[in-house]
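User: Please look over both lines:
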Amino acid sequence: MTTLFCNGRFFQSGPGGQGHTFAECMLVDDEGQIVHVGSPKDEKIKAAGAGVAVEHDMAGHVVLPGFIDGHMHLLMLGQSLQKACLEACQNIEDIRRTIKDYAIANPSVARIMCKGWMHSMTNGEALASMIDDLDPDPSLSIPRTSILPGATLLR
């Protein structure tokens, strides 16, 4: 079944993301292939609208192209902006100092979240006892930075 998506903001760009624009309509054929992206004034869009195409009003929503392995960690990106960054730390002393500075600068947080810890920073150990004395009130989460299954040091 041919489907016409209209009244949307369909992102499109040239090679390398140059010259990006937003189109108002997208036409998809019976096999799920995008056959046209454009304006309601385009002949293909007019013909589909007058024919047997099923129409979906996108109510002005933005539609982005699919990506290979197209999951995006937008929530995690937003959360990472509120985390103590350990990426520049070289050892446990740097980590402890960074966490302590973060706790002082953010006294109202209920949980200190960190990012950027690597096993090599702590000689391959991940023990809660290494940070227990830093701040007794908030809980602390330090996930390992890796594409592999990681360890999380929770206090």
